[in-house]
């Protein structure tokens, strides 16, 4: 179909229909267009989605000034130049700039420039290969797909059913990243990545933060030392971290008054606002899944090509958060590339390569998943943790290095540097199964680790990858030296 601009005509047929114009939907559209297919993209909110306006981009725009000031205060000669606190209005202006003041016209234009048609409105599957769109002007646009419909509707914050939570008017990640006033006291429920990052940001912006974590440490899904180091740093920054604790109810008698949280140990926390960061739920409740025999509100079960299982004809795909394989923007974009390539290949009559690490298989979701927590210190991990590898029945070797003492580049990066690294090796193959780094600046080490895991690089070859001195990446050499010393004992 010839491109007639960024807005789609009413009632039309396309090769591919994408529901959701976040980064994942945009990448599906780009790969399908590169394969010569016509594409319509349906979006009910902002083109760019959660990541661009309420998650990854605004949260990191807020975190960087906070962490930069904290890092400066850890350097002799630099700390003397830091005479005041973080300027919250300046941070909010920076965030607003990076989210384009919640104006999506640039991203909408980019869709048009690639030759995809944008349909604004709420898209719902309406039977096989059909999508109906309720547009803002209250008309219904009917779209038909020749080859595929791809669901990229993402997820939203989970809000637990709890006495008093409605009257408390709790924040989710959206409020936490688009608010421009600093509450004097902020209670955060949840010790995962969102809770930890927002505790870091809002404590740095001037809130007195209480972080309530159900587990014995923050970041429980990572290696234990990651949670220990990040938790200790949060406490040093002034965050009141409560472990092994859950909230049982809330009270907010006055709409403009404080919130009282009752904890399971019968103590109370009083806060001016409460942020709930306890997980995500799929945005599939009102997208017409019932018309094709699927359960509304459910995660969509997919194969490695991200094709939804249980749909006759194999025309429905789901990429990104909605398939629950990896709730990370970069991983969703990876899936989107695979989906777009797979649809284009099938449309052209080509066979799919779904082998491990094949062009049309999302192998990295299982074997080389990278994740970063932009806390202070940062956490960067890829592949399997030691516990995950043992659960999988693998025989492994674990190599640990204290970056604080062993890596000169780390000590030069920050006085009193606090950090640790772990390499998980497959004992049978001497290949890297997983890597975890904790420390300032370690996020930039992660891609090298991802290449090592995805590339199944043997230790013998890693010895020839020489890290430059004096950089934090010298930790790679220290890990290999520690491994060798253990072998010689």
From TrEMBL:
Belongs to the class-I pyridine nucleotide-disulfide oxidoreductase family. The keyword Flavoprotein applies. It comes from Micromonospora avicenniae. Residues 370-476 form the Pyridine nucleotide-disulphide oxidoreductase dimerisation domain. Keywords: FAD, Flavoprotein, NAD, Nucleotide-binding. Disulfide bonds join 51-56. InterPro entries: Class-I_Pyr_Nuc-Dis_Oxidored, FAD/NAD-bd_sf, FAD/NAD-binding_dom, FAD/NAD-linked_Rdtase_dimer_sf, Pyr_nuc-diS_OxRdtase, Pyr_nucl-diS_OxRdtase_dimer. The keyword NAD applies. Gene3D superfamilies: 3.30.390.30, FAD/NAD(P)-binding domain (3.50.50.60). It holds the Pfam family Pyr_redox_dim. Binds 1 FAD per subunit. Its cofactor is FAD. FAD binds at residues 60, 123, 153-155, 321. GO terms for biological process: 2-oxoglutarate metabolic process. GO terms for molecular function: dihydrolipoyl dehydrogenase (NADH) activity; flavin adenine dinucleotide binding. NAD(+) binds at residues 190-197, 279. This is Dihydrolipoamide dehydrogenase. Residues 14-336 form the FAD/NAD(P)-binding domain.
């Amino acid at each position: 179909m010839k491109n007639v601009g960024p807005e789609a005509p009413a009632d039309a047929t396309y090769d591919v229909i994408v529901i959701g114009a976040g980064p994942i939907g945009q990448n599906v559209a780009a790969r399908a267009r590169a394969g010569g297919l016509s594409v319509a993209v349906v979006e009910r909110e902002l083109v760019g989605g959660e990541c661009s306006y309420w998650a990854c981009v605004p949260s990191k725009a807020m975190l960087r000034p906070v962490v930069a000031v904290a890092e400066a205060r850890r350097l002799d000669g630099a700390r003397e130049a830091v005479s005041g606190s973080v300027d919250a209005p300046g941070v909010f202006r920076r965030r607003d700039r990076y989210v384009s003041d919640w104006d999506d016209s640039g991203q909408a234009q980019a869709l048009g420039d690639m030759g995809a048609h944008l349909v604004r409105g709420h898209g719902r599957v309406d039977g096989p290969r059909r999508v109906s769109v309720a547009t803002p002007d209250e008309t219904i646009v009917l779209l038909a797909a020749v080859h595929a419909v791809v669901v990229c509707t993402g997820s939203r914050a989970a809000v637990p059913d709890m006495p008093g939570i409605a009257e408390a008017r709790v924040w989710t990640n959206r409020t936490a990243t688009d608010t421009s006033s600093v509450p004097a006291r902020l209670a955060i429920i949840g010790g995962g990545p969102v809770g930890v990052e927002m505790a870091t940001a809002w404590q740095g912006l001037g809130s007195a933060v209480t972080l309530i974590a159900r587990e014995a440490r923050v970041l429980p899904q990572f290696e234990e030392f990651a949670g220990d180091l990040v938790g200790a740093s949060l406490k040093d920054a002034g965050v009141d971290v409560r472990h092994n604790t859950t909230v049982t109810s809330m009270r907010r008698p006055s709409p403009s008054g404080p919130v009282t949280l009752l904890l399971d140990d019968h103590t109370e926390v009083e806060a001016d606002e409460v942020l709930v960061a306890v997980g995500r739920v799929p945005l599939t409740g009102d997208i017409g899944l019932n018309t094709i025999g699927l359960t509304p509100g459910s995660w969509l079960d997919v194969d490695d090509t991200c094709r939804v299982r249980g749909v006759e004809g194999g025309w429905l795909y789901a990429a990104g958060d909605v398939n629950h394989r990896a709730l990370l923007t970069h991983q969703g974009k990876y899936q989107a590339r695979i989906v777009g390539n797979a649809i284009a290949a099938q449309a052209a009559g080509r066979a799919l390569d779904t082998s491990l690490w094949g062009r049309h298989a999302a192998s990295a979701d299982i074997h080389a998943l990278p994740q970063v927590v932009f806390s202070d210190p940062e956490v960067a991990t890829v592949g399997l943790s030691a516990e995950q590898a043992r659960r999988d029945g693998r025989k492994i070797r674990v190599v640990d290095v204290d970056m604080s003492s062993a890596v000169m580049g780390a000590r030069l990066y920050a006085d009193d540097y606090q950090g640790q690294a772990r390499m998980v090796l497959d004992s049978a193959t001497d290949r890297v199964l997983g890597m975890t780094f904790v420390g300032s600046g370690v996020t930039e080490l992660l891609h090298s680790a991802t290449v090592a895991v995805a590339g199944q690089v043997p230790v013998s070859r890693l010895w020839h990858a020489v890290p430059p001195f004096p950089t934090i990446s010298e930790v790679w050499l220290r890990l290999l030296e520690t491994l060798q010393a253990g072998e010689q004992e």
